[in-house]
Amino acid sequence: MSTVTDELATSDPAVAGAIPHSRSWRRLLVRHGWTIGVWVLLALLIVWYSTLIPSFGSFQMASIAKNSLPLVFLALGQAVIVIAGGVDLSIGAQMVLASVVAARYMDEQPFAATLAVGVGVVILLAMVNGTVGLIVYTSKVPDIVVTLATSFIISGAALWVLPSPGGGTSAGFRAMFTGSEFGSGENFWPPIVVIAVSTTVVALVLRRTRTGLSLYAVGSDSTAAYLSGVGLRRSKVTSYAIGGALAGMAGLATIAITGSGDPRASVGANATLNSVAAIVLGGIALTGGVGSVVGAVAAAIILFFLNPILSAMKFDPNTAQVIQGVLIIVVMMIAGLLERRRRRAE
Amino acid sequence: MSNDHDTEATIPLLEARSVAKSYGPVVALRSADLAVRPGEIHALLGANGAGKSTLVKALSGVFPPTAGEIVIAGDTVRLRKPSDALARGIATVFQDPALVPDLTVSQNLALTGVDESLVTPWLEQVGLAGLQRDLLVREIPLEQLRLIDLARALAGDPQVLLLDEITAALPADQAEHVFGIMQHWRDRGRAVLFITHRLAEVRRMCDRATVLRDGRDVASLDPRAGSESTLIEAMLGDEVVATADRTERSLALDSQVALEARGLSSGDKVNDVSFQIRAGEIVGIAALEGQGQERLFDLLSGDRRPSDGEIFTEGKPLRALSPYDAVQRGVVLVPSDRLLGLLPQQSVRSNIGLPLYRRARTWLGLDSDEPARVDDAIERLDIDTRAQRQVNRLSGGNQQKVVIARWLATGFRTLLCFDPTRGIDLQTKRQLYELLRELADDGAAILLYTSELPEIPLVCDRVLVLYDGKIVAEQDAADATEESMLSAAHGLGVSA
Q1: Do A229 and B112 touch (CB under 8 A)?
Q2: pLDDT at B387 over 60
Q3: What is the predicted pLDDT for the residue at A295?
């Protein structure tokens, strides 16, 4: 038998042809189609919005860019955690904690001191949430349960730090995120640069470094990742720590926009839900391992942007909420149908 | 070739001393001794559930053994994670490739910290020179993933290569690539631990064999001495080994056509395939890897709609929108990946009873015959129900029986078996084939694809050879030989 197969092995065209083949540009388009689609949708919405309101200029651009900052950071953080196979229901509470800590210790301080406090807040949040990741890993309790519990703890801690709205920050700190010392102005470049830089950094870390790839790997197939030499505990802690740091950034953006701290838990709870909606709309699979943070950022901006659009269309805020929910479902349904058609065509 | 005289003197590269592993009360490995010496290809043999995979995992650092010690090149070591074993020159290619599905091939290599330029020559060696590295792993067939995993392992230049079932479902020509590499490793004075169910491969390639039975090593022998049945006896112990002789079956020529395909096509995978299977007939599909057999079974089982052509059951057209429609018409599938069709966390009973749940009476808890149907199926298939609680604790062969038992309990007319014996030990394999014959005698129509070509004439009545999505030959099983099927399967035409 072996002689027969030896002969055949040398002259077999079928096997070489069996290696999957497809053109790289088409593959890139399919693989990144969702991300591209979300950005196109955002562009279309901006164009449409500009025709809806009497005057559209740099003030509106700046307003949209800076006001979407907190959600952009939260979506980035949630994206990192979900890609690594977790989910963080406390991310909004962390944002609140970060903003009140910042408001309390930045109040009446010069720019340099507020900057130092800002860095400290981000590190603090990374450590707090890294610990949460460690708890999730060690306890083997599902992420959703642990982070729901920690969201209560963190919300309570925020009230300890700042029992009622107040505190403040320096004018320079506000300008850094918003482009204006008063939190609102015509200069739209600073918030856009902040969005672009943070998105690029997170995306590059995830896709180009071994640590980032290990997060994707753990979310996609933790057994295969483990057998490939990825440390599961390390990945869990890393993803939660990055998520915490980005929640800290969201808190800093919040105080830069509003100028003071607001410890109410409802702010955080809403923000958490929006962060999950943003990553789902941005094409990140809740099962982990799939999706790009670039899409999640566009989706976060869209989710924020729906508010001014719907109010420009003269919907009352309650109706606007319903419409927002319906839109998310419709978009996800269309996506599901497209995916099924593509599978069938293959 | 190894030098049998001086191997005893050299220090083994990898040694297991009384290694045991249990998960709570479940004992997977009682006590295993194994010594892999430099310059040898060492076979690890045993029936399913004997503890082979457990031993391999302990040796490669997936989990620490409950008792015993692992010795690498004379040093007793504690392996806490897979990278510990890798760092000591023990590289493993697992049965399920350790490649992350949502990352590209390149990203997977970067993840392990392997230099891609070191992998490239080995990819060429295993016949994957044309592989696009920016493909996602999930887009690549399993057989090629095993080879990519092998190439990645080789790039680390390991002292000992552990290959767990790497040749299962690998077409003959690609298996030759693997054998070449194994020989190369032996010739360099290193070692290979080779796990396979194919005894012909063991006798051809291996210098020594360690046999596991019920979690213990029961023999260490030269596989070339004696015959295959020596190995089988060692693996199965005192149990009587039934020989798989082909018994002539007479088929009533006027029996009804149970399943018919007319001009079936699907994209470029399946092209104008027509055939009939009559009740009581077992038809085999012989094909090399990737000739459209997967797609053909997808079409017949209702998982996918054909782009052209029609399927008939008992003369009536079947336009299935999902496998549910096909099951309703008595066409059921036994896939090669057992767990694909099972609920691994559920009990054997509830897995078998699952399709019965579509009946409202079962659903309401009023169904009186459900326990009886399930008992009947379990008994008929001789399923090992010691692991009552969860299907994922069963061995592969028993899981496959659960799949068949489920359809027995549900009732069917046509059974589609896609490589049902992949990675299953000889004894269970025989039981499965006997079962298929029994089912056919009772009037079932069976379509069987198996990657183990020699088995087709033993089980089937008729063979269809598939090449490039088309049926290129039809042979009576009595006349079909491995050579005649192979040459047809390579698209060379039937010489016989």
Answers
A1: yes
A2: no
A3: 95
Max mean pLDDT range (B121-130, B185-194, B243-252) = B185-194
List, in order, residues 6 or more apart from B379 with CB less than 8 Å away.
none
- Contact assessment for residue A92 and residue A254, using Cβ atoms and an 8 Å cutoff: no
**B330/B336 Cα distance (integer angstroms):** 19
Rounded CA gap, B351 and B59, in Å? 33
| Residue A24 to residue B483, Cβ atoms within 8 A | no
H or E stretch covering B153 = helix B142-155
Question: What is the predicted ipTM?
Answer: 0.83
Contact between A5 and B468 using a beta-carbon 8 Å cutoff: no
Q: Cβ contacts (< 8 Å) between B134 and chain A: which residues? A: 24, 27
Helix intervals (H) in chain A: 2-10, 13-17, 24-52, 58-67, 69-83, 91-106, 111-139, 143-161, 171-178, 189-208, 210-220, 222-227, 232-258, 265-281, 293-312, 317-345
Query: What pLDDT sits at residue B369?
Result: 65
Q: For B330-367, give one letter per residue: b (16+ CB within 10 A) or e.
A: bbbbbbbebeebbeeebebbebbbbbbeeeeebeeeeb
Q: Which residues from chain A sit within 8 angstroms of residue B108, using beta carbons?
A: 217, 228
Task: With a cut of 50, say whether residue B72 has pLDDT above it.
Answer: yes
With b meaning 16 or more CB within 10 Å and e meaning fewer, what string describes A172-201?
A: ebbbbbbbbeebbbebbebbbebbeebbee
Nearest CB to B94; choose among A22, A210, A227: A227
Selected residue with higher pLDDT from B171 and A140 = A140
- Structure confidence at residue B329 as a pLDDT band (50, 70, 90): confident
pLDDT at B274: 93
Give the A-side interface with B, CB within 8 Å: 1-2, 4-6, 8-9, 12, 14-16, 18-22, 24, 27, 31, 210, 213-214, 216-217, 219-221, 223-231, 289-290, 344, 346
- With CB atoms and an 8 Å threshold, state whether B174 touches A289: no
pTM, two decimals, is: 0.74
Q: Which amino acid is at B469?
A: G
Count of CA atoms in the C-beta half-sphere (13 A) of A154: 34
- In chain A, which residue's Cα lies nearest the Cα of B149? A228
Residues of B in contact with A223 (CB under 8 A): 96, 98
CA distance A112 to B348: 67
pLDDT digits (tens, 9 = 90+) for B43-68: 998 876 678 888 999 999 999 999 99
pLDDT tens track for B259-312:
999 999 988 789 899 999 998 899 999 887 778 888 999 999 888 888 889 999
Structure tokens at B229: 């049945």
